[in-house]
Amino acid sequence: MAKNIEKLWGGRFAERTDELVERFTASVQFDSRLYRHDITASIAHARMLAHVGVITEADRDAIVKGLGKIADDIERGDFAWSAGLEDVHMNIEARLTEHIGDAGKRLHTARSRNDQVATDLRLYLRDEVDAIAGEILGLQRVLLDVAEREAATIMPGFTHLQTAQPVTFGHHMMAWFEMLARDRTRLSDCRARINVMPLGSAALAGTSYPIDREYTAKLLGFDGVCANSLDAVSDRDFVIEFNAAAALIMVHLSRFSEELILWSSAQFNFIALPDRYCTGSSIMPQKKNPDVAELVRGKTGRVTGNLLALLMLMKGQPLAYNRDNQEDKEPLFDSVDTVKASLQVYSGMIAALDVRRDVMHDAALRGFATATDLADYLVRKGVAFRDAHEIVGRAVRYGVESGKDLAQMSLDQLRQFWATIDEDVFAVLTLDGSVTARDHIGGTAPVQVRAAVSRARAALDAAG
Ligand code: ARG
User: Fold this and answer.
1) Given this model, what pLDDT does residue 2 score?
2) Spelled out in words, what is the top-level CATH class assigned to the domain 366-463?
3) DSSP-assigned beta bridge partners for residue 155
4) 133: preceding bond cis by omega (within 30 degrees)
5) How far is residue 21's CA from residue 32's CA, in Å, rounded to a whole number?
6) Which CATH superfamily is domain 114-362 in?
7) How much distance in Å is there from the Cα of 443 to the middle of ligand 1?
8) pTM
9) Which of 25, 119, 323, 324 to mutate to test the pocket of ligand 1 (most atoms within 8 A of CB)?
10) For the segment 62-94, what is each residue's pLDDT rounded down to a tens digit?
């Protein structure tokens, strides 16, 4: 039997890897995406090895130069990835040795693919977390603009999707802003745990070379080094944590999508989505479908599924590294791509939203949205809240039977339910009166919405 000549680990093997096994175990078709971070980490590792005298400066220089050339080749599309070389790490290392000879073979001193891949993944994810946080920020700024513009636009607020109380559209937009703000803090929380360096853990136990991990960590911009080598090569909790944060972002966007889909239907007609964010039907000429919102809602299933896949991938693993961990990449990459694309497409769509103020206003006039205001009015006249609730309930029943909203009833009609109701009741029964009255931090009054927008804008500007 032919020896495993091509394999970097072929020494102890007497027969070639089965072809199916080779294909089954290879990861290069997806982990080649890590090439930039793999090369960055290798350059830092080589610099550290020279710094502590494990390799010569000449070897270091050859390695740095050779890796630079490989990065260029890959970027130009001039790099033939080989499944026989399994993964991104061995493809790059083998090519380096082809280019620079023996110096290339020294790069893997004091390192294993186990700490290498964990390091690459953290570097990669650190960048992606920053990119995704940037996309969230972009969408948040769009929401602030819409909220400010629509601070006094009245719409029906819902609970149970039944008309509850009038709210302002700006206030509603600021609710989405708040959810995204928390999403961003979740990303920065998990970034702190991502940004710790596994390199130096080697296969599992550390290495017998006099390495300087702090030196490498500094070169790579890590906040510190992983304190335990077994843990460092093994756990992917940082990937899981990120995916949990990603799943929440998608769940938020999915709920937002559900509203856009409802609101843009002919039955609601609260908003119109820009044509360029919709598609038509191949059979029904009148159709304009909210596909972007629907797809974001649908893609939420993928990202949530990825989270579950990652949790299951981890749950049965004994310490330390196991090949199972290779399965972390596809779900992670898919979540990163999906969340990023969803956020990007969302910003443009929300910025171009056509808000149908009149329709929303008319809708708020139906459904007794100011019933709570009437009850609060009676409380101010000395009625206990529970009694006021009962009285207004009777007035609403009369309204349902007679087809009149509260504000359309005459003073005499209202006095059937409580004798001391005065003319001033009509001010509280209007939509404007209702929203203006909710004038405290977190309330829906237009002044509060504008204040919330400027506070939020100042905070975003201060954060850079
Ligand atoms: N492709 C592998 C992964 O993604 C790299 C580490 C392989 N380590 C090993 N001992 N086989 O996890």
Assistant:
1) 44
2) mainly alpha
3) 167
4) no
5) 19
6) Fumarase/aspartase (Central domain) (1.20.200.10)
7) 53
8) 0.95
9) 323
10) 999 999 999 999 999 999 999 999 999 999 999
